[in-house]
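Quick one:
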Amino acid sequence: MEAFFRLGRRPTCAGRVLRGIIMGPLSPMKLFVLSALLLSTVAFAQETPTEREAARDVLKKMGDLEKSLDVPGWVTRLSAANPARDQVTARAKQLMDTELLAMSDDITRHPEIGFVEKRSIQLLIDYLKRHGFEVTVGVANLPTAFVARYKGNNGAPNLGVILEYDALRGTRGAFHGDQHSAQGPVGMAAAIAMAEYLERTHAPGSVVVFGTPGEEMMPPVAKTDMFKAGIFNGMDVIVRSHAVSSTSRPAPGFGTCCLNIDGVKYTFTGAPSHQMTSWAGRNAPEAVIHLFNNIDSVRSSIRPEARVQGVITEGGAAPNVVPDHTAADFYIRYPDAVYLAQVREFVDNAARAAALSTGTKVKIDNYGSMRDGISVATLAEVGFAHMKRFGATHIEEAPGKPQGYDETGTVSSAIPGLGFAAYTSNAPNHTYEMEADALTEVGHQGFVVGAQSMAALLFDFATHPDYRAAVKREFEGIQALFGEYQEALKKVYTLPRVPDPQ
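Output:
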């Protein structure tokens, strides 16, 4: 879902300084500088000046929380040599090199769009079954969603891994321009390597794999439906991977990769007639054209960070019949959900006005929503250090904006986790070039880095109770600040007073 998208992000002074310290050993002075830089990212965590000003007190509290956690200390401690962890990451690499890169290529060459990924999930679930997982398909009433639990699971901590496998809808047909074809193999390599280690050593811990369809489509919003059905209940941490054109990680806080979104369908109905006597009918396509024009006419009254983008999905059947039915599908976006409500009102009213002016009727269907999730530095910085250690390239030195690891915000606002973003393509997301890179060395190298890094972080989380406690404290601290942030935004997004005409 336009993963890890950034709005106008530029290299920061912090990023230039960080460039000089992240690659070498962390001396006491470097730890001090790294700590200061990580804290400085909190002050610029939100995307708009209005958000940052409204959240000033919240961000100060978040900064105090981050300082108390000593994240650079955790990076140093968990970057130390660990032969047991090396065995786990070596196993993940072996699985990728011998079998799973080939599976990734296979899924890339046979793309399936969301909710019909039957061939893709069959490859994934067959592989999981061969490696000791019990699989339940069709969870949350989604035919291509599944849950796989390792047969040797041994209580908490519960380690979750999200897999995705749907392709994009393109004018040339389905294509893997977001490299979801690799997310299943990457996640399975890490999950299997970790599950085998826990069983072999009789260590406490369980591994659960979640197959989540249709990330690029709604309705339904698959992860939200799975979350509401309790599919993710009991997880202590969840990880996933996603294709990117640089190696990066988010700053701590709340946010989303691609703005808060309302998915809305506007359906207009009219009345048919012969085109020679068009006044005897009511033209539904004219209404949808007015909708687009009305939206354009109010863009100057909407904050510039908003994105209102739609397509006409139905426009009539024949030019000699006045069309009586048409529809447009919109993703309406804003960096936060509070002002998004105002943008929605503008667009809904534009649709109502279009119907009134054309004598048609409109149905408004808000069929899906995506909202802010939570990112935590205790996971992001350790995961980032692992990606560098395993050879990730094209590194973004400074943390990016805060964003939950799942695009819906539902899972990542309730369960801590990390979306691994290792460089896997020279091209931007949602392009044919990114799909092509999935089949080459640039993609393969990044996929192996992702699998090894994911396995390493799961190992750290499972084997260090004090680290788990730090992650939990950070997550719950940021979670508690989110409501305060929302209330602060409500105070600044005031509506102008429009008097009645005299």
